[in-house]
Design brief:
single chain, 237 residues, Rossmann fold, 4-stranded antiparallel sheet, 7 helices, 10 strands, globular, disordered N terminus
Length: 237
């Protein structure tokens, strides 16, 4: 009888793989290189923090990972597809399909209800009816525990609730990856804990979560820490 084929013989393909990525900005007579030959892999379903001080290169790395910028040199493979040379329109479609973004400042429209804020990304889906958009936005808000705040405006919500709306907006397109840039930076300690718990719960459902942070306390709470300094990865545990 032939031996059974083990799962180890078919290793999982990395969700994200960047190889020797460099980014150079030309500012007058000077060149600035915030990333210098960075390589890393992130597997499907991981919960990762990329941590570094201001000027470390973490924001540039986030922009490249989220397809908001392209490397000057090196490769970026997303689910095995080379994306570092795609055009702006192709990158925009990829962002809308694969990523949900959460930012420190929430980025909510002040004169728009929580429900309408969450619906916004769905307006790019021309084939989706109004009723389907509404149903998906309602489901996303329920997922983050705000089913009783759907009609509230941002100024009627606490900071933690506003960030939950932003997370619901990030989830409404059913992304494979949630990329969060300092998502607790404007929150008190209790709200910070609640938001980190929510990210852990989302990760437990299979969503890959990548947090960008300068806070060692947050870095200590995730499953994997990648530390960047002066444009290079100095820790990857």
């Amino acid at each position: 009888m032939e031996a059974a084929v083990g799962a180890a013989e078919f290793p999982m393909t990395p969700l994200i793989s960047i190889e020797k990525v460099t980014k150079v900005y030309h500012l007058g007579e000077h060149d600035i290189m915030p990333l210098q030959g960075v390589s890393l892999q992130i597997m499907p379903g991981e919960f990762v923090a990329i941590m570094g001080a201001s000027g470390s290169g973490k924001t540039t790395l986030m922009n490249i990972l989220g397809c908001m910028d392209k490397p000057t040199d090196g490769k970026y493979l997303l689910e095995g597809q080379e994306v570092s040379r795609l055009g702006k329109d192709e990158l925009a479609r990829l962002r809308n399909k694969k990523f949900g973004f959460v930012f420190q400042s929430f980025n909510l429209l002040s004169r728009t209800s929580a429900l309408e804020n969450v619906e916004l990304p769905l307006q790019y889906w021309n084939t989706m009816s109004w009723s389907e958009r509404r149903q998906r936005a309602e489901a996303a808000l329920k997922r983050v525990g705000l089913e009783d705040r759907m009609d509230h405006y941002p100024n009627q919500l606490s900071g933690g609730q506003q960030q939950r709306v932003a997370i619901a907006r990030a989830l409404v397109n059913d992304p494979a990856i949630v990329l969060a840039d300092e998502p607790t930076g404007n929150l008190d300690s209790k709200s910070e804990k609640d938001i980190l718990t929510l990210f852990s719960e989302l990760n437990a459902t299979g969503i890959t979560v990548i947090l960008i942070t300068h806070n060692p306390e947050i870095g200590a709470q995730v499953k994997r820490l990648i530390r960047i300094k002066d444009g290079r990865i100095v820790e990857n545990a």
